[in-house]
Amino acid sequence: MSDSSAVNHSLINKRILLGVSGGIAAYKSAELIRRLQVAGADVRVVMTRAAQEFITPLTLQALSGNPVHHSMLDPEAEAAMGHIELARWADLILIAPASADVIARLAAGEGNDLLTTVCLASKAPLALAPAMNQAMYSHLATQANLTLLTERKLHIFGPANGVQACGDVGPGRMLEADELVNASAALFQSGLLAGKKVVISAGPTREAIDPVRYISNHSSGKMGYALASACVEAGALVTLISGPTKLDCPSHVKRINTISAADMHAACTDQASACDLFIGAAAVADFRPLAAADQKMKKQDGSEQLTLTLVKNPDIIKAVSALLPRPFTVGFAAETENVLGYARDKLKRKNLDAIIANDVATEGTGFNSDDNAATLISPKFEQNFDRRSKNQLARDLINAISKIMA
Ligand code: C5P
Known about the structure:
By secondary structure, this protein is of the alpha/beta class. It has two domains: about 10-185, Rossmann fold (3-Layer(aba) Sandwich), CATH 3.40.50; about 195-295 and about 305-405, CoaB-like (Rossmann fold, 3-Layer(aba) Sandwich), CATH 3.40.50. Helix content is about 35%, strand content about 25%. The chain contains 14 helices and 19 strands. The chain has helices at about 30-40, 55-65, 75-80, 85-90, 100-105, 115-120, 135-140, 140-150, 175-190, 220-235, 260-270, 315-320, 340-350, 390-405; strands spanning about 15-20, 40-45, 90-100, 125-130, 155, 160-165, 170-175, 195-200, 205-210, 215, 235-240, 255, 275-280, 285-290, 310, 330-335, 355-360, 370-380, 380-390. α1 (about 30-40) packs across α9 (about 175-190). The radius of gyration is 26 Å and the shape is elongated. Cytidine-5'-monophosphate (C5P) binds next to α12 and β16.
């Protein structure tokens, strides 16, 4: 594991709308974009008119990799991603630098440019990094505005004390990029699984028929990988035991690659004995060929059929739930009919603490798609999660699971 501190993990996959207002500290926004991206965030930028006097939209566009938004009145930009879509897109709006003017406009609830309008239209948390001359910062009007915004649950990062661009010394310097990244990350860190060890199986297994052929299934691994990221965000130390997938290992996750159900069984039982939570998200092949041929199998002349003898694979999650001591064990039930009925039965049969039931026959959810819907079932509790991105579903499931575990 590259890093066991959880603070910066929580920006992975987060959508951060960076608002840049006018001030000399606007040049620091360039570095901030880069640092947020390194922490795993997807960044889009909204600039005020004054900000464009200090740094060009082109610079921030090149760094963020996305068009910079600056006008409410540009039909082309509105058609591509309008102000309401931007407001909905954001997981966090961070205004850095936040000038005295933008702070005053936010306090007054104004919507007289794109940035303030997006802030009004968004349900995302809003954080400000004030940056201005020390006299402007200390002015009663600015202080009253900041107090009002704090009462409205806005987050104020900084400012720092020190020498200012104008030569004054005092409070009003924008925090450095890494301090803003840490402060933003801390907003997402639930700490619900702080210090817990989590093992997650994910992806398909491949059962060899011969050196070039295998039996497998359509599992992409996306749900298990999203759960691994969500557990990292919640402060856990995560090991992902993955069948063959095309996915990159999420940051701060230790991945053990496996191919067959037998490999996965060995890795899971080995790792799960020392963990607090095991989630079996893998689509394990139920059967494997009795013996894989040593050489590529040839077509037999005159034979129109091939008979393979399959034998049952070990049930990995059942083996994990039989361990002593056993981790809190959560399985998946991917079904095409009678989803909840089969899931409840599996919960008992496999001696699980909870099971995540999902309908893989529905278009747009389940195997290989980016979205999913699920029902979390434990012996005393059922909660339905309607369709949402696998990343969001993973966060919501981990939130709910950590509460059942507590
Ligand atoms: O029995 P079924 O495959 O429907 O059960 C699904 C759950 O059991 C999933 O959590 C899956 O990861 C787990 N499983 C397993 N080993 C198997 C088959 C399924 O761990 N051989």
